[in-house]
Design brief:
Layout: H1 2-24, H2 50-63, E1 68-75, E2 78-79, E3 84-85, E4 93-99, E5 107-113, H3 120-135, H4 138-146, E6 147-152, H5 157-160, E7 163-164, E8 167-168, E9 195-196, E10 200-202, E11 209-211, E12 216-217, H6 236-243, E13 248-251, E14 257-261, H7 276-288, E15 292-298, E16 301-302, E17 314-317, E18 324-325, E19 332-333, H8 337-353, E20 365-366, H9 376-381, E21 386-392, H10 396-399, H11 404-423, H12 433-436, E22 444-445
Parallel strand pairs: 5-6, 5-15, 15-21, 17-20
Antiparallel strand pairs: 1-4, 2-3, 4-6, 7-8, 9-12, 10-11, 13-14, 16-22, 17-21, 18-19
Helix pairs in contact: 2-3, 3-11, 4-11, 8-11
The structure holds zinc ion.
Length: 454
């Protein structure tokens, strides 16, 4: 399986170069940071462990006087409705916090956080918002009368609690071993391209990489525009052929990588729904049919523009998937025009909600243009949800818990404002051009652990 990573490598490299080529030529913003220095110990002590998260959720439910209803949507290693087991153990619970029911006459927002286990602030920000909603008041009551808001916080609970060297070391990936025979496939079938076979993670130390040794998947590539996709619904040979059909990257005479073959087991296609986590989230999505789906991530550091040295607070995106044809059925998917319009309005509201004088809150960029049908946002946008990607500044491995108060409000404030404007209908008067005019991603500030991919 080690061999796989060599194939994945060039793809990732090519993608991140494409994202950063303009930024790399640009001067760095001042000040550079404030990420922690090499070898400096990171403290995660103010972040919630899984246990602490669960008790926080239960506490919010108790204090909400019926406004919030807490359920377990499933477990990280077992998917209840079709009893799909990925490991021996049951795994960790994925909680569903419901503010409001599934009334089709209401507007509906679904929010997920920590699909990448190391993106801790996303969950902390969601908890802040839940507390605000649970506390109630006139405005909150008016919102919840018209809008139901469901949260799936920390949808990668195993990556979130990952350990390295006896310490808590949150990782991007899930914990799960590729076991083709368990899926009825030939033993030598290649893993999905987003499999992290050696259990490695980027880091500030050890040349920017640690190997914690637990294999797993990038859950945010395991989704599929065909929300009902199951490996077991196809013949073993059909699935094995698809999995063994990976991208082939070659170098031209100038040493530039190019895609010599576009395989079905690649980011151009949907994922294989091999994680219980992605199936659980998708099942909630199918049941709820949200108007708006918001997924919260972390990213690196940018300055806003040539003239404006403010550090970018968040990057946002309303559009992460283009037209898609299912390679198995030939079924075509595309993002509906009105769905995209509302998505732009949602992102525009988020942008406006953080404009506070000349503060760094308002320094917002658009996320780089991508076409990723295997992401939760991409797959759900192709199934009629208006989407917003929020990318918080900094990674847990770089920022630790610095600036956490500010970072949390770059999650809770925009989402609250979106809910408010959905409730009173004023979101439909927002000019989608506000979104179009948000500055493009650029002026990246170098940082060894920064990722170019959400
Ligand atoms: Zn992420």
């Amino acid at each position: 399986m080690k061999k796989l990573l060599r194939y994945v490598g060039p793809t990732t490299l090519a993608m991140s170069l494409a994202f950063t080529s303009t930024a790399m030529a640009n001067p760095q913003s001042k000040p550079n940071g404030p990420w922690v220095e090499d070898e400096q110990n990171l403290s995660f002590s103010s972040f919630m462990t899984n246990e602490e998260l669960y008790s926080a959720l239960e506490k919010i439910e108790r204090s909400s006087h019926g406004k919030m209803e807490l359920e377990i949507a499933g477990y990280s290693n077992v998917f209840e409705p079709d009893n799909y087991w990925t490991e021996e153990e049951k795994g960790d619970p994925i909680y569903l916090a419901k503010f409001g029911d599934n009334d089709p006459d209401k507007k509906k927002i679904l929010i997920t956080t920590q699909i990448h286990g190391n993106e801790l602030v996303s969950t902390e920000g969601a908890i802040d918002l839940m507390q605000k909603l649970a506390a109630g008041g006139k405005e909150v009551d008016e919102i919840l009368e018209k809008v139901s808001i469901w949260f799936l916080p920390r949808i990668n609970p195993e990556g979130a609690m990952n350990q390295y060297d006896g310490e808590w070391y949150p990782a991007r990936y899930t914990h799960q071993t590729w076991a083709p025979e368990a899926l009825g496939l030939p033993a030598e079938t290649l893993a999905p391209w987003y499999y992290n076979s050696d259990g490695s993670e980027r880091a500030q130390n050890n040349d920017g990489r640690v190997v914690y040794g637990v294999p797993g998947y990038d859950e945010n590539r395991d989704y599929n525009p065909n929300l009902d996709f199951r490996v077991s619904d196809y013949s073993a040979s059909e699935i094995a052929d698809a999995l063994n059909d990976q991208d082939v990257w070659k170098q031209d005479e100038n040493g530039n990588w190019y895609e010599a073959h576009n395989g079905k087991n690649s980011s151009d296609y949907g994922g294989f729904y091999v994680t219980a986590e992605s199936r659980i989230v998708t099942e909630v999505f199918k049941q709820f049919e949200p108007d708006v789906y918001i997924d919260v991530h972390h990213r690196g550091f940018n300055k806003l523009s040539e003239e404006d040295n403010r550090q970018v607070s968040i990057q946002v995106a309303a559009d992460v998937a283009g037209d898609y044809t299912d390679p198995f059925s030939g079924k075509k998917y595309s993002v509906d025009k009105d769905v995209l319009k509302l998505g732009k309005q949602v992102n525009a509201v988020a942008h406006e909600s953080l404009q506070r004088g000349f503060s760094s809150f308002g320094a917002i960029q658009k996320y780089p243009k991508v076409d990723l049908p295997g992401t939760a946002l991409g797959a759900f946008a192709l199934n009629d949800a208006s989407i917003m990607l929020i990318e918080i500044k900094g990674q847990s491995q770089t920022l630790g818990q610095k600036q956490i108060g500010m970072l949390k409000s770059t999650v809770s404030v925009p989402i609250y404002e979106v809910a408010k404007k959905l409730a009173d209908g004023s979101i439909h008067n927002v000019d989608p051009a506000i979104y179009d005019n948000i500055p493009e991603a650029a002026f990246r500030i170098s940082d060894p652990t920064t990722r170019g991919d959400f």
